[in-house]
């Protein structure tokens, strides 16, 4: 019996550095003390008050089928948040609640791309991007953002890749680079989308982790709300990765199509998770700042330890929970450096190559480890690199 070709097509050729993670996990399982600087997940757990709201909702009976598009109160809360952030009037009819930002990414591409279309994405990229585009039967086409441009995508590169494309996926603050797109970059991207008649899919799951801004949402720009789909999530902003709750903001017709897709796939998000999300969002900006605070602190640690090392170049981390380090002067590839770092120092970082060719010769360091342990690991990494550079 044969499987459909869809998933094989979605997976592409694969094999781009993830084997390192698997090796590190194997070492941990065998009892070796590996320091993981590779995990894109807050290292603290969901706040107990959010869990209490979740438990209370479930205990009071919100355990049945619920509104597939998302409960109205939550959609209103998300819409108010987006209105406040962008200045563009946004209502519950523009919101589709999804099981996490990943489902929002998947939904957006399913709704906007047909087989034979191309979907653009910026490289370096978050691991699931090409697969999410290919899952719609479309060609996943890379637009390169270069290290010498601070990984800010350029309009000319977008326009050169645009023929035959219907969508462009961007992500700011960015995983893996830790870069926040400047307002000029966002304006250039928006202009390129208008000139090439592209939908813009803006992944803003790190919107609360901005160390140097402003982080402009393209939905805020004149005329862009009708061609922009914004993706959000409580995974990073509220340390709720396991709750699987996120959203898509889009023109009403797109949300309506998203409803039909959800009706035939997820059938919505559990009511008690949505109630917990509503409670979490209502805790406001100070709570979100407290969740982001460890990453803000650790960014300073990275800058202190790795910012001034001859032969290493730290890409200034301006947002999200990552830092990118250019190690090309050591003469090693990112993959070779990361592999030796794992073997010799028992530290696991992600090789840049696993995020696409423009990040080759870089390492992605996740700041998802408690401060003192992070600093100790970074010092060992720095000394390891210094020995190679000598
Ligand atoms: N987008 C980016 C850039 C991410 O880094 C992640 C997770 O790491 C996601 C989307 C998906 O997050 P979630 O599905 O947990 O909301």
TrEMBL record:
The protein's required cofactors: pyridoxal 5'-phosphate
All copies of domain Aminotransferase class I/classII large, residue ranges: 34-380
Any Pfam family: Aminotran_1_2
CDD domains hit by this protein: AAT_like
Top-level taxonomic group: Bacteria
InterPro entries linked: Aminotransferase_I/II_large, AspAT/PAT-like, NHTrfase_class1_PyrdxlP-BS, PyrdxlP-dep_Trfase, PyrdxlP-dep_Trfase_major
Reactions performed catalytically: L-aspartate + 2-oxoglutarate = oxaloacetate + L-glutamate
EC annotation from Swiss-Prot or TrEMBL: 2.6.1.-
Broad enzyme group: transferase
Single Gene Ontology BP annotation: amino acid metabolic process
UniProt key word Protein transport: no
Record key words, sorted: Aminotransferase, Pyridoxal phosphate, Transferase
GO function terms (MF aspect): L-aspartate:2-oxoglutarate aminotransferase activity; pyridoxal phosphate binding
Protein name: Aminotransferase
Signal peptide (from-to): none
């Amino acid at each position: 019996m044969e499987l459909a070709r869809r998933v094989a097509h979605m997976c592409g050729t694969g094999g781009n550095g993830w084997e390192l993670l698997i090796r590190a996990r194997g070492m941990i399982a065998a009892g070796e003390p590996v320091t993981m600087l590779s995990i894109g997940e807050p290292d603290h757990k969901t706040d107990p008050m959010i869990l209490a709201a979740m438990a209370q909702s479930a205990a009071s009976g919100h355990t049945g089928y619920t509104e597939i598009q998302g409960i109205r109160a939550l959609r209103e809360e998300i819409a108010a948040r987006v209105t406040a952030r962008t200045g563009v009037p946004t209502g519950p009819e523009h919101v589709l609640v999804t099981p996490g930002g990943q489902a929002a990414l998947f939904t957006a591409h399913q709704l906007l791309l047909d087989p034979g279309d191309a979907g653009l994405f910026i490289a370096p990229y978050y691991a699931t991007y090409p697969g999410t585009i290919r899952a719609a039967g479309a060609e996943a086409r890379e637009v390169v953002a270069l290290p010498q441009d601070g990984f800010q995508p350029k309009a000319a590169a977008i326009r050169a890749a645009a023929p035959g494309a219907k969508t462009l996926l961007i992500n700011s603050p960015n995983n893996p680079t830790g870069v926040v797109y400047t307002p000029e970059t966002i304006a250039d991207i928006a202009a390129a989308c208008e000139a090439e008649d592209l939908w813009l899919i803006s992944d803003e799951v790190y919107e609360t982790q901005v160390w140097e801004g402003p982080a402009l949402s393209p939905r805020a720009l004149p005329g862009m709300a009708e061609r922009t789909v914004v993706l959000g999530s409580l995974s990073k902003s509220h340390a709720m990765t396991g709750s699987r709750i996120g959203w898509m903001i889009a023109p009403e017709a797109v949300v309506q199509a998203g409803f039909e897709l959800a009706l035939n796939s997820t059938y919505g998000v559990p009511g008690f998770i949505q109630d917990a999300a509503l409670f979490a969002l209502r805790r406001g900006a100070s709570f979100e700042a407290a969740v982001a605070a460890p990453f803000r602190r650790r960014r300073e640690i990275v800058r202190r330890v790795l910012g001034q090392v001859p032969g290493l170049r730290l890409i200034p981390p301006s947002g999200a929970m990552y830092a990118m380090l250019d190690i090309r002067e050591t003469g090693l590839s990112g993959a070779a450096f990361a592999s030796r770092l794992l073997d010799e120092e028992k530290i696991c970082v992600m090789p840049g190559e696993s995020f696409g060719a423009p990040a080759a010769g870089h390492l992605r360091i996740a700041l998802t480890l408690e401060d003192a342990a992070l600093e100790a690991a970074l010092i060992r990494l720095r000394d390891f690199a210094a020995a190679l550079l000598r």
